[in-house]
Amino acid sequence: MSSTTEREKQAPRPVRRPGDRIFEGLSTSAGILILLTLLGVAIFLTLEGLPGITASPDDLGGKTGGKNFFAYVWPLVFGTVWAAVIALLIAVPVAIGVALYISHYAPRRLSSTLGYVIDLLAAVPSVVYGLWGLLFLSRELAPFYQWLADHLGFIPFFAGNPSGGVSANSILTASLVLAVMVLPIITAICREIFLQTPRLHEEAALALGATRWEMVRLSVFPYARSGIVSASMLGLGRALGETMAVAMVLSASGVVTFNLIGSTNPSTIAANIALQFPEAFGTFTNVLIATGLVLFVITFAANFVARAIVERRKDFSGAN
Amino acid sequence: MAKSIDVSDLNIYYGDFLAVEGVNITIPAKSVTAFIGPSGCGKSTFLRSLNRMHEVIKGAHVDGKVLVDGTDLYAADMDPVNVRRLIGMVFQRPNPFPTMSIYDNVLAGQKLNSKKMKKSEADDTVERALRQAGLWAEVKDRLNRPGSGLSGGQQQRLCIARAVAVQPEILLMDEPCSALDPISTSVIEDLIHELKTEYTIVIVTHNMQQAARVSDDTAFFNLAGVGQPGKLVESGRTEKIFSNPDNPATEAYIQGRFG
After folding, report:
1. CA B92/CA A277 separation, integer angstroms
2. pLDDT, position B115
């Protein structure tokens, strides 16, 4: 016992070179800075939001329609998650397909051009997507929505308006615009991960007599699974928080409905803040900030769920 | 089940580059044939051309014929996917599918052949293949654990099990022991001896003692010069190649005088 402590005392301190120290300092402070920023945002949202959460409906001057905070925020939470989930359901399969085409199917020259074009999509400002959704997409989609309501109206999703009409400025249009907006980031990440699939694993599948698609299923997808989840979560984060495009496209009325193509739609938290904030004063401002806190929590929860999904299959991830 | 391979006047190209030139060789059934030669002499390329695996590199193509019991692997109506289902392959570095369990790894080829199997049948196949690969005793209690959790030598035997599970006619091995320690290597060499009673085995190796230990026939490949295509210099019974080769280059290589 005593000999080990003596040996520990004698053990030379590891040599620390200046370069190591500087970079360790830089990267540590970068990490701490991120945490501090996040903490700052959380503190701000909590402090400013609390009065809004506890306010009685009468103090809000009818801005919330006589509802307390939780009754007010619930349709917004629903709308936010609903629009983002539909956007992801549309975007993820397309993104995986595009990424796979670029990484494994397209001729080299085409694949680099295509990758470049997809990256460009990410650079388009969201207000432009909003304009496009409002002035072009919704108009083009109206006949298709009518067709959905006529033929698939028995499914609650496609019920349309009680009067029989449909609205092109519905949550489905907003989700489609969101899907286009999150597509580039999901595609870009998936593409990078697909390209990193070890050649050894691909050859293992091919040598067993796998066709190209079977090879993708046997070696590329399993290898990329956690990356696909991460990419989707980044996309989900963007879809949850996207403000301008939704605010412009969606005609919202604070209801909770699964109807995708009706004229009464739930709004989203971010779009609601953008639309209400210019005219907000007093405690209602706190209410809006509190809805921001709720969005913050939702985004956090989504990320935790994603981590959990990735973690659960860790043994089989190929990282060991 | 095991079949012989007849190769005549085979040239292998990567795009315009001629990698291997004019190979003529007969590989007998139910025996082990070793390919030896210096690095870059085209022996791996040639091995891969035997199950059309070299075609995964864009622009790779061949002239000449590879006949497996009279069937031309490069006939116009021959699908490389079917070729690879008949001719299994084991690679230099063990490559079990990391996301699959040991059990699923062994059955991976079977599933591709889209045979619907009963559970009992599948269990039998897994046990048979793992026994053939000499791995059954070590893994039978953890078939549902990931294959990547095994040691390197075990992983390589798992890959052999995966290859033999589909009962191929020929088994190609591309330096299967080069990433393994001597004990795992010797286990695999013993395994090769057992497997040749059922399969035609072709093995590429850099280890001359290994070639001498495991093979019945040996083929020596060499480069004619820098930038020149690789060539088959000489092939024949292993005893003869190692004791009394016809070509002085073969003798020089085997005695370690170059390469």
Report:
1. 64
2. 66
Partner A contacted by B146 (CB < 8 A): yes
User: How many angstroms separate the CA atoms of A267 and A259, rounded?
Assistant: 13
Domains and CATH numbers, chain A: 19-318 (1.10.3720.10)
Smallest Cα distance from B117 to chain A, Å: 18
Residues 6+ apart with CB under 8 A from A168: A138, A139, A141, A142, A145
In terms of DSSP H, where are the helices of chain B? 43-49, 80-86, 102-112, 119-132, 136-139, 152-165, 182-195, 208-214, 238-243, 248-254
A213–chain B Cβ distance below 8 A for any pair: no
Quote the pTM value: 0.82
Residue in chain B nearest A226 by alpha carbon: B99
ipTM for the predicted complex: 0.88
Q: Which residues pair with B218 in a beta bridge?
A: B34, B236
For A100, A254, B4, B173, the CA distances from B31, given in Å and listed in that order, are 42, 77, 9, 13
**Which amino acid, residue A9?**
K
Three-state SS for B12?
strand
Of A177, A233, A190, A228, the closest CA to residue A101 belongs to A190
- Report the residue of chain A nearest B106, measured CA to CA: A208
Other CB atoms within 10 Å distance of the CB of residue B164 = 23
Distance CA A72, CA A60 (A): 11
Residue A319's pLDDT is 47
